[in-house]
């Protein structure tokens, strides 16, 4: 790995006061950015500069900063989570950029993810989809059967685990040219459909989650595969195919 | 959940789009086979064309089903395109689609519109002519006219060129559409991946085969 150096960059960032007002792109210059810093640390540095200039800092989502929580979003230079694959924005580093670069930063764009402020969007549509069926009803009154007491084929367990790795960041929706949420919903449906504990409510789950997805205003999947490429957790398109099968079989019941 | 709500769902539309596409692919295969016969046997081509043109099952059952399939596929394509555009009311300032998806997959509406325009020309060239010949002018049955009619259409370099361009766009449409339709109806990647190779081969062989047929008749007659 090459040694860290400082670079000067130009930033074009979407600024929007609140959900009601119209936003616009604004340009900022930022000097002496260490290539060893993370992308979010670069934004912290910019915000410090803005505060010192008595300007409003840029609002952006972040939490764990280690690629687990799914809070950080950002559409960077035309790609969800920026110019790399298999990462969230907090895992993106400034070594991916060069001195003199102009970096364009936008919020996730989707009718179902309205902008709250600047780069922060409202992703509660995902929560409502989860509430529509993304769970198993378990009796927790002391009669719960240990999950390990129910045998699960290794292949199914692995696939369920891979689907459960979805952190609900919304990169699939952001990157899809149609603004479709089918990779997210496909992962959530698969995670349970593959396990015996999830089969009990499988029919209602897939019907209700897809209905909620449609009501939220997400677009239709056309299988471009962009979501799979940009997903920080590598959720496979297989999950969409599985959801389609689950939905078709549930529709016929 | 009501069945009507299920039929209106995004997945039902996606599956309907896929099934209509697969149906059109099956027709395209038959069409290609018959046209390809014209390259090496004038008589066989005439016999097959006559059968297709006068068999009552094909004329009065399969032909309307085909027209319905074509209309449904295009109308549903536009409906889905409109819904998808509404799903992103504010466009990105910078969108690097090429970083994660193919041009063919992102531009099905463009390749579809070109194929639709081509179908207009194709219907005018052959279907409209056939309807006038049979039902308006009430000409006598001539089982040997089809080959000559086909060759006559490919005399014009402009028309032959338009056909070739349209088939390149059809290849792009099929390149994404065939594999996409299998994914839509729920084919798992395990089975799907082996089928994908057949789909890609079809997307190349059939449209470029049509181009070969058009050029063959243009340069040989």
Automatic annotation (TrEMBL), chain A:
Name any cofactors this protein relies on. Answer: [2Fe-2S] cluster
Matches recorded under InterPro entries:
2Fe2S_fd_BS, 4Fe4S_Fe-S-bd, SDH/FRD_Iron-Sulfur, Succ_DH/fum_Rdtase_Fe-S, Succ_DH/fum_Rdtase_N
**Record domain 4Fe-4S ferredoxin-type: where:** 157-187
Q: Which PANTHER family match?
A: SUCCINATE DEHYDROGENASE, SUCCINATE DEHYDROGENASE IRON-SULFUR PROTEIN
Q: What is this protein called?
A: Succinate dehydrogenase/fumarate reductase iron-sulfur subunit
Question: Which species does the entry assign this protein to?
Answer: Flavobacterium taihuense
From TrEMBL, chain B:
Q: Reply yes or no: does the keyword GTP-binding apply.
A: no
Is this entry keyworded Signal?
no
Keyword line: Membrane, Transmembrane, Transmembrane helix
Q: What InterPro entries is this protein classified in? A: Cytochrome_b-558
Q: Which residues cross the membrane?
A: 21-40, 60-82, 103-124, 160-178, 198-219
Question: Please, which domain of life does this record's source organism belong to?
Answer: Bacteria
Q: What is this protein called?
A: Succinate dehydrogenase cytochrome b subunit
Protein's organism: Flavobacterium taihuense
């Amino acid at each position: 790995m090459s040694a860290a150096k400082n670079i000067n960059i130009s930033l074009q960032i979407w600024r929007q006061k609140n959900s009601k007002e119209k936003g616009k792109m604004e340009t900022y210059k930022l000097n002496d950015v260490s290539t060893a810093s993370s992308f979010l640390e670069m934004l912290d540095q910019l915000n410090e500069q803005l505060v010192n200039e008595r300007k409003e800092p840029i609002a952006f989502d972040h939490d764990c900063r280690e690629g687990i929580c799914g809070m950080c979003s950002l559409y960077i230079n035309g790609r969800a989570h920026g110019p790399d694959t298999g990462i969230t924005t907090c895992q993106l580093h400034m070594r991916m950029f060069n001195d003199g670069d102009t970096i364009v930063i936008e919020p996730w764009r989707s009718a179902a993810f309205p902008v709250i402020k600047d780069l922060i969007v409202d992703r509660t549509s995902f929560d409502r989809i989860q509430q529509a069926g993304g769970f198993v009803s378990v009796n927790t009154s002391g009669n719960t059967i240990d999950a390990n007491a129910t045998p699960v084929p290794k292949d199914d367990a692995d696939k369920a685990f891979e689907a459960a790795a979805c952190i609900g960041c919304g990169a699939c929706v952001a990157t899809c040219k149609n603004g479709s949420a089918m990779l997210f919903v496909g992962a959530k449906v698969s995670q349970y459909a593959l396990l015996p504990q999830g089969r009990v409510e499988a029919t209602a789950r897939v019907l209700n989650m897809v209905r909620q997805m449609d009501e939220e205003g997400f677009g239709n999947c056309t299988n471009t595969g962009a979501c799979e490429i940009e997903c920080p957790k590598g959720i496979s398109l297989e999950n969409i195919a599985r959801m389609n099968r689950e939905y078709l079989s549930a529709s016929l019941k | 959940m009501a069945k009507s709500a299920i039929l209106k769902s995004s997945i039902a539309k996606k599956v309907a789009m896929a099934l209509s596409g697969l149906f059109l692919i099956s027709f395209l295969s038959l069409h290609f086979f018959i046209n390809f016969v014209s390259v090496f046997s004038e008589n066989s081509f005439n016999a097959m064309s006559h059968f297709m043109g006068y068999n009552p099952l094909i004329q009065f059952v399969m032909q309307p089903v085909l027209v319905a399939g074509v209309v449904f596929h295009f109308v549903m394509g536009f409906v889905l395109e409109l819904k998808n555009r509404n799903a992103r009311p504010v466009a990105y300032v910078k969108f690097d689609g090429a970083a994660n998806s193919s041009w063919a997959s992102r531009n099905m509406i463009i390749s579809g519109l070109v194929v639709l325009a081509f179908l207009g020309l194709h219907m005018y060239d052959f279907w409209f002519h056939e309807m006038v010949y049979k039902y308006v002018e009430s000409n006598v049955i001539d089982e040997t006219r089809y080959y000559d009619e086909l060759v006559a259409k490919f005399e014009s370099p402009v028309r032959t060129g338009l056909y070739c361009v349209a088939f390149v766009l059809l290849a792009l449409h099929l390149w994404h559409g065939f594999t996409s339709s299998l994914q839509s109806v729920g084919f798992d990647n395990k089975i799907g991946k082996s089928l994908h190779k057949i789909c890609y081969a079809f997307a190349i062989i059939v449209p470029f085969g049509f181009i070969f047929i058009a050029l063959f008749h243009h340069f040989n007659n």
